[in-house]
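Students often ask why inverse folding is considered easier than folding. One informal answer: many sequences map to the same fold, so there is more than one right answer. In these notes we will look at a single instance of the problem. The structure comes first.
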């Protein structure tokens, strides 16, 4: 009988890609991907960015108690960012003693060894967390699930310490992969037929600062974009303080790099940006947007925006609304500030009451949605090229993104995943476009 595994992922793209690495380890051990119901190994890859994600993970781990009682051979492993939080592994042990293995983000590569130790008969919960980031481990063999898209880590960790963010505490300091490893991974992916490559890092602009060889992020991007083959090249995430002209010139030089930049502004108020330790002002942010549009007049921007940060007044919020209007984002991820234990902002006075946060987020969402809608309507009657990446069973349509990240839906009677499709847009809703193949 086949041995099956399942990986349950919470959080960002970084975690999704790490789950592909976990899947690769389990497949090398002889397991095949399966559903939660019939898996013999269940791995939770947790996220601690927001309390919601933590509560979700707690709920889902707790729900396995009965099953573990009925089937003691079921192996439950819990890893990811949450496990790097102080005291969390002990909390897991206390709340869920039936968990078998607890591991962290810095020793994911040891998962096979930990599972084998547990399978060798160790009775108690096995906890192995490395407090400090170690050397970057190469030679991982992720089991990718997102053809025709592939994610490639270029650096790990973060040195920025934005006051609301837990990432530097759980992911450690910045470490860059050597350029030759990144280039050969991308070359291999392109040869295998992947058509959209996304370079991943908490702050891609910091790439190379810790390397002995001298290489900046724009230099790396230029080299990756020069790899032969038909593919799109994206990157995330770019910190506005480090976003510069050199990078924009590389984007302008290569057709493979879409003119869509994700540049998280977080707030339009200088007072709040300073309290967030973002190290740029709204004026500096706007100047970079202007510089980007000078080189790339058709560039679109997306962003992350937090409302209700401690001490945010009506005036601060209005400054955010003004900035959003001025930049005219293609879309934005909007968040209500949520306290993360262990961060500086959680200790700040003047936490904004929930009802004010709610009111502000509603106004912001309304504004962003209106901008997104207005941009989508401009597509009506026009043609766009999308890379087909999935099939939506509910809609009965294939879907894929254009270079600006808009989701295009269309019908086809054969499998189109991985194809470049030219669509004539006949309808739109929010950021989604509907069309017919031409
Ligand atoms: S740049 Fe700021 S928000 Fe982004 S991961 Fe680093 S600390 Fe967190």
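Output (designed amino acids):
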């Amino acid at each position: 009988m086949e041995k099956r595994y399942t990986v349950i992922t919470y959080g960002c793209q970084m975690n999704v890609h790490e789950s592909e690495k976990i899947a690769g380890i389990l497949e090398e051990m002889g397991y095949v991907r399966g559903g939660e119901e019939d898996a013999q190994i269940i791995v939770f890859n947790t996220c601690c960015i927001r309390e919601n994600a933590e509560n979700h993970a707690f709920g889902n781990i707790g729900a396995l108690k009965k099953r573990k009682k009925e089937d003691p051979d079921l192996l439950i492993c819990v890893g990811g960012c949450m496990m790097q939080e102080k005291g969390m592994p002990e909390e897991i042990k206390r709340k869920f003693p039936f968990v078998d293995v607890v591991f962290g983000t810095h020793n994911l590569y040891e998962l096979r060894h930990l599972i084998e130790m547990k399978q060798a008969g160790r009775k108690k919960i096995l906890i192995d967390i490395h407090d400090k980031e170690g050397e970057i481990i190469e030679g991982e063999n992720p089991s990718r699930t997102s053809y025709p898209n592939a994610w490639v880590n270029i650096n790990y960790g973060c040195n920025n310490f934005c006051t609301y963010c837990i990432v530097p505490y759980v992911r450690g300091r910045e470490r860059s992969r050597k350029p030759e490893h990144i280039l050969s991974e991308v070359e291999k992916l392109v040869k295998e037929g992947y058509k959209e490559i996304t370079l991943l890092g908490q702050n891609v602009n910091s790439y190379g600062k810790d390397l002995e060889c001298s290489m900046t992020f724009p230099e790396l991007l230029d080299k990756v974009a020069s790899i032969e083959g038909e593919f799109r090249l994206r990157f995330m995430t770019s910190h506005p303080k480090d976003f510069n002209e050199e990078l924009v010139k590389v984007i302008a030089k290569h057709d493979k790099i879409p003119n869509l930049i994700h540049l998280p502004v977080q707030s339009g108020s200088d007072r709040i940006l300073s309290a967030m330790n973002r190290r740029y002002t709204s004026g500096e942010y706007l100047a970079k947007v202007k510089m980007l549009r000078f080189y790339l007049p058709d560039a679109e921007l997306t962003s992350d925006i937090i409302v209700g940060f401690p001490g945010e007044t009506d005036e601060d919020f209005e400054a955010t609304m003004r900035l959003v209007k001025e930049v005219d984002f293609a879309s934005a991820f909007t968040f209500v500030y949520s306290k993360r234990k262990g961060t500086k902002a959680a200790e700040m006075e003047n936490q904004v009451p929930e009802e004010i946060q709610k009111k502000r987020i509603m106004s912001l969402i309304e504004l962003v949605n209106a901008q997104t809608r207005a941009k989508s309507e401009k597509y009506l009657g026009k043609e766009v090229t999308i890379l087909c990446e999935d099939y939506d069973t509910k809609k009965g349509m294939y879907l894929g993104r254009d270079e600006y990240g808009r989701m295009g839906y269309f019908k086809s009677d054969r499998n189109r995943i991985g194809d470049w499709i030219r669509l004539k847009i006949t309808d739109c809703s929010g950021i989604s476009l509907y069309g017919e193949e031409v």
